[in-house]
Amino acid sequence: MSVSTDPKKIEELLTRRVADAVVLDSLRKKLESGKVLRIKFGADPTSPDLHIGHAVPIKKLREFQELGHKVVFLIGDYTARVGDPSGKSKTRPMLSDEDVKKNAETYFAQVGKILDLEKTEIRWNGEWFSKMTFADILKLAGQFTVARMIERDDFANRLREGTDVHMHELFYPMMQAYDSIMLDADVEIGGTDQRFNILAGRDLQRKMGKPEQDCLFLGPILVGTDGVKKMSKSLGNYIGLTDAPDDMFGKVMSIPDAAMWDWFALTTDVPHAEFHAMRDACALGDMNPRDAKVRLAKEIIAQYHSAAAADVAEQNFISLFQKKEIPEDIAEIAVMGGERTLIDLLVETDLCASKSDARRQIVQGGVKVDDMAVTDIALTVAVGKTPVLIQKGKRHFVKIRAK
Predict the structure, then answer these.
(1) What CATH number has the domain bearing residue 272?
(2) Which of 204, 213, 320, 348 could form a disulfide with 177, with the two C-beta atoms 3.0–4.6 Å apart?
(3) What is the DSSP annotation of 320-369?
């Protein structure tokens, strides 16, 4: 397969799902040159399942692959034993060799939902780390300084708070950097939380007389279904790549409206202009956010299952919605349009006697907007021409629209 230098595709690759690049002009020139680039991405198999947050960089790898570049997917069987300290307030538990291999077994089938595995170079960093002598390790460690290591925020914060930083944790960025040496990486991609580790690879390449890799940092970080914290299995706010279509649909429909547009950008291939138009229509009240969310859910399901499965999941969701006891003769009230707080709307429509009552009802899970339970007291509702259904408890309903 020849390398594509299509300017539109290159621009899309350099902008969508991208928070920053080092160095952008250098990377653009490499992509325009027509040379096959080696694109490095490392994953530590710390758990057996991947979620759609993990899929963000893998989707970027697919973009490189579609342009004809060589994707190198590195399984960090040795770095997983250390545990990446990025963003961690305490030392991560060291994994056994058995745990690492068991978790890695599931990775390939899941990654294969996005990448063409036949065109992917799969490597393990145990290929080189298992053969290193202590003299080799000392030589590698001599390329880094303690002062540089403790500059990173997670280490600095832990030291300031009196929390231990263990020696083996300092090895992690060195190991990730050395991976770039062994793989002859032209480009490395990762999340914004990987900036220190990825730039360490660039520095080590320079010190060892190799061409410096360019770095692509993806972002923003995908928030979970709660709309607040980073998607994480430990927090339970995730959608797994192996989740059933019905589960995926229900989880997407539960996310806050405000998080929906970043989800479109990060987890789907819907053109920016298209979902921006939906966002504007929702803000004006010309489109119900629920309909945009349905589109998002179907896009996600189609990627990991099929378009047919997405259609079935939608119908199952609708059937479930229609079975609920929602009266047909709901009062419709015209209120001031625009972005309104849910608390104000509950009081204005007499569903709640006061703002404190409204807050209590929301926190206790007694309020739904368009049949979706909400617990965020700061939630705002876009009030426009399309009626929005608000429910308090089991028997109190009202539809609101702009005056």
Answers:
(1) 1.10.240
(2) 204
(3) HHHHS---S---EEEE--EEEEHHHHHHHTTSSSSHHHHHHHHHTT-EEE
What one-character-per-residue DSSP string does 154-186 give? HHHHHHHTT----HHHHHHHHHHHHHHHHHT-S
Phi, psi for 97 (deg, rounded to 5) = -60, -35
The answer to whether residues 29 and 109 belong to one domain is yes
Q: Is pLDDT at 209 greater than 60 in this prediction?
A: yes
Q: Which residues pair with 392 in a beta bridge?
A: 367, 396
Residues 52 and 87 in one domain: yes
- Compute φ and ψ for 354, nearest 5 degrees: -155, 170
> Given this model, what pLDDT does residue 162 score?
80
* Cα–Cα distance, 318 to 315 (Å, whole number): 5
**Using omega within 30 degrees of 0 as the cis cutoff, is the peptide bond preceding 85 cis?**
no
* Residue 181 sits in the same domain as residue 286: no
The beta-strand segments (E) located in 219-331 are none
Cβ-contact 62, 52 below 8 angstroms:
no
In a domain, 232, yes or no: no
| Total number of residues shown for the chain | 403
pLDDT tens-digit map of 337-378: 899 999 999 999 999 988 988 998 898 888 999 888 888 899
> What pTM, to 2 d.p., does this model score?
0.75
Please name the residues in contact with 157: beta carbons below 8 A apart, sequence gap of 6 or more. 89
State mean pLDDT over 96-111.
82
pLDDT surpasses 90 at 321: no
Residue pair 396/325 in contact by the 8 Å Cβ criterion = no
Give residue-wise pLDDT tens across range 47-97: 778 899 999 999 999 999 999 999 999 999 888 877 665 554 455 566 777
Q: Could you tell me whether strands 380-383 and 338-341 are parallel, antiparallel, or unpaired per DSSP bridges?
A: antiparallel
pLDDT digits (tens, 9 = 90+) for 3-44: 999 999 999 999 999 999 999 999 999 999 999 999 999 988
Q: Which strand ranges, in their side-by-side order, compose the sheet holding 332-335?
A: 332-335, 396-402, 388-392, 367-369, 372-374
DSSP state at residue 223: B
Domain containing 347 equals 332-402
Task: State both tokens at 176.
Answer: 């990730």
- Distance between CA atoms of 259 and 51, rounded to whole angstroms? 17
